[in-house]
Amino acid sequence: MAPDTGIPAWVTYPGERWEAISPTEAGLDPGKFQDWLDAHPIGPGTWEGESHGEGEWGCVLTRGGYLIHTWGNPDYRYQTASLGKAFTWALVGLSVDAGMIRPDEPIRLTWTGESELSHPHKYLDRGHHRTLTWQHLIGRKDEYEHRGGFPVTNGYFWRQGSTAQSSRGDPKHASVPDWAHWTGDPFYDNYAHAPPGSVGMYSSGGLWRLSQALTALWGRDMKAVMDERIFSHLRVPPERWDWTPGRVVHETRDWYPHMPGYGDYLDPPHEIGGHPVRGGPGWVVMSAKDLARFGLLVATRGTWRGERLVSADWVRGHSGGNGSYVGGESVHYTSVGRVTTDAGPGPLPDKLFVGPVKRAAEELAP
């Protein structure tokens, strides 16, 4: 084992490019792996009217820092919907690690939004917001829900009196919950309707408020912070990815063509201190190859080349919302990145593995 990290010595880290190895070199049973590939076809996907051309999708599978298999175009970049929440998690973790905040302290001690938020009822030192913490808005690692009391996550459906997130529908989200006050205006209604911690609901509106607070906390562009603290180490240069500002989603009525006005809830401020507020709820633009690097960071629980970049509690994957995904696991040290696919792999079954990555093991042998 490598000292202090608990990461097996056979785990390596990609340089400028991924090095591809065979399934056998990756410690997989090649026959069983091929059977698994045949049983899990992956192809292009679309979500809520998105338009993608030929080859505009991709998926990457890695193990121990090596590329094992790709599907489609692994260099294709497109906004990845809610997958960006994984990056917001990391930003909260970086803030905690730096001693800038404590997860369970009220956000109002850092930023109230007074004179910047669109209405006084949204100020973070008023109403239910007085007890609103960073942890309430980001959620818990083992939960899908957020507990800030923010019910809005989709402007299109909120106008219809629903908290549904997709036109495919979900009976669980058929109507606005009893604890929320509905006016039909997602812009006006993006605030804490219930005491934080008292109710749970998946809420991109709450994550947007968190994005504003994080931008105020750092006094910097959140993308620049991630570039400096995370992606410069992962060898992902700033020009190779983007994080869509909330203003763009708010002003692009057909961001999701089947849900016109989806981003109406993304209220100002759209810039704080001259810095754009990035889409904390999602909309990272990144290729499957580079997402898999973040997935490897998830697998190594926040360490990279023996250096801890972020505490393990704050690095995680997220399923996304338009066929995009990033994930990593810490048993076999695989990682996955997907962009606009119709399906795709999560963790591989244990039965496929016969040992550690042989390439790395051979290189480490005396």
What topology does this entry show?
Elements (H helix, E strand, L loop, with lengths): L29 H10 L18 E6 L2 E7 L4 E3 L5 H13 L36 H5 L16 H4 L45 H15 L3 H10 L10 E2 L2 H6 L19 E2 L2 E2 L7 E4 H12 L3 E2 L2 E2 L16 E4 L5 E6 L18 H7 L2
Antiparallel strand pairs: 1-2, 1-11, 3-7, 4-7, 5-6, 8-9, 10-11
Helix pairs in contact: 2-5, 2-6
Verbal overview:
The protein has 366 residues and is of the alpha+beta class. It has 2 domains: 51-80 and 283-364, no CATH class; 82-276, no CATH class. The protein is built from 9 helices and 11 strands. The protein has helices spanning 30-39, 85-97, 134-138, 155-158, 204-218, 222-231, 246-251, 288-299, 358-364; strands at residues 58-63, 66-72, 77-79, 242-243, 271-272, 275-276, 284-287, 303-304, 307-308, 325-328, 334-339. The chain has a 4-stranded antiparallel sheet with strand order 2-1-11-10. It has a 3-stranded antiparallel sheet with strand order 3-7-4. It has a two-stranded antiparallel sheet with strand order 5-6. A hairpin with a 2-residue loop joins β1 and β2 (66-72). α2 (85-97) runs parallel beside α5. The two termini are 16 Å apart. The mean pLDDT is 93.
Count of extended strands = 11
Percent range for helical residues? Answer: 10-25%
Q: How are strands sequenced across the largest beta sheet? A: 2-1-11-10
- The low-confidence runs, each spanning 5 or more residues with pLDDT under 50, are none
Mean pLDDT, nearest integer?
93
